[in-house]
Amino acid sequence: MSDATNASAVAMPPEIARYIRGAETENLQFEFLIGEWTVEGCRFTASGDVAMRYSGTWRAQYMHDKRIVLDDFTMRLPSGQEVSSFVTLRTYCSLTQRWEMAGLGALQPAMNGEWFGRLTGEEMVLQATARLADGSVVRNRIRFHDIAPDRFRWESHNSFDDGGSWVPAANMIVTRRA
Length: 178
Fold this sequence. Notes:
Elements: H1 3-9, H2 14-21, E1 35-44, E2 50-63, E3 68-76, E4 82-93, E5 98-105, E6 112-120, E7 123-131, E8 137-148, E9 151-159, E10 167-176
Antiparallel strand pairs: 1-2, 1-10, 2-3, 3-4, 4-5, 5-6, 6-7, 7-8, 8-9, 9-10
């Protein structure tokens, strides 16, 4: 038997078969994020007071036949100076029935964590558990809500006691660029 015949007799791995079938309907759940955005936001102190206000930009695009969303967020001070950026890869996993994500911030320690989410009604709700540079663990909840074609709201809360209490970390009003 030839090598070609042997290769065709081997069963196709399930992950390859899923890929060949194309993007899942759920892969479009982040469709609202695709495009270029202007951001107005604020970060909070651990006690919930406003620590700083900022503006920013957010760009998102599909990759690999809409199987992955790549987005790039940049925060700027009122002077226009870039002070933070974060790139995220998002993909829907049909096996876990959730969004699985990985991200990396420039000029920041890398976070080693688990990050996932689901569309819940009209909101995209994300959760993360990460170990910080000092070894402590933080839980994070992110919520995309009030989603419309030209805008959405985003908020983030942190827990440093394994979900016993939550404090606001940041929020943003995000508007589509013309």
